[in-house]
Specification:
Distance between the termini: 64 Å
Shape: rod-shaped
Structural class: mainly alpha
Radius of gyration: 38 Å
Number of domains: 1
Helix content: 55-70%
Order of helices and strands: HHHH
Low-confidence stretches: none
Number of helices: 4
C-alpha cells in the first residue's frame, strides 16, 4: 500500500474537510450546556412531581366519589330498614298516638345495624393488608 492509499489519509488530503463534512457535532458552548441541563432538570422534576400528583388526583377523585356513593347507599339502606321495621304491626300500633310500647325497637335495631356497618368499615381500614409475595420474603430471610 502506498501513502496515498492508506485508510487514515483522506482522499482530498485534508483531514479537517472530512471531519467538517461528517456527522460529528460541533462542540457546544457553555451556555448551551446550561440550557440542556436546565431542560433535563425541568423535565425530570415534571416527571417526578407533576405526573405523580396528577395520578394521585385521579386516585383521590375516584376514592372520594366512591366513598360518597357508598355512604349515600348505606344511609338509604338503613332508612329502608327503619321504614320496613316500622311497618310491622308489632312495633307500630295504629290506634295509639305515639306508636305503642315497642315503637323504639325499629330505631334501636337500625342504630345497631349502623354501628355494625361502622365497625366493619373501621376493621377494614385498620387491618394489615395481606402480603402478595409472602413466600418470596420467607425464602429471602432464610438463605
Amino acid at each position: 500500500m502506498t501513502d496515498s492509499q492508506t485508510p487514515s489519509a483522506p482522499a482530498g488530503g485534508n483531514l479537517r474537510s472530512v471531519i467538517a463534512g461528517s456527522s460529528v457535532p460541533a462542540p457546544k458552548k457553555p451556555g448551551e450546556h446550561v440550557a440542556d441541563l436546565k431542560e433535563l432538570v425541568v423535565g425530570y422534576a415534571r416527571q417526578e412531581t407533576i405526573d405523580p400528583l396528577k395520578n394521585l388526583g385521579r386516585y383521590l377523585g375516584w376514592g372520594v366519589g366512591g366513598s360518597i356513593a357508598v355512604g349515600i347507599g348505606s344511609l338509604l339502606l338503613l332508612l329502608a330498614l327503619l321504614r320496613g321495621l316500622q311497618s310491622i304491626d308489632v312495633f307500630n300500633h295504629v290506634g295509639e298516638v305515639d306508636g305503642g310500647t315497642w315503637s323504639f325497637v325499629p330505631y334501636l335495631a337500625t342504630a345497631i345495624a349502623a354501628f355494625i356497618l361502622i365497625g366493619l368499615a373501621v376493621f377494614a381500614i385498620v387491618r394489615e393488608p395481606k402480603r402478595a409475595n409472602s413466600k418470596n420474603e420467607t425464602v429471602r430471610s432464610n438463605p
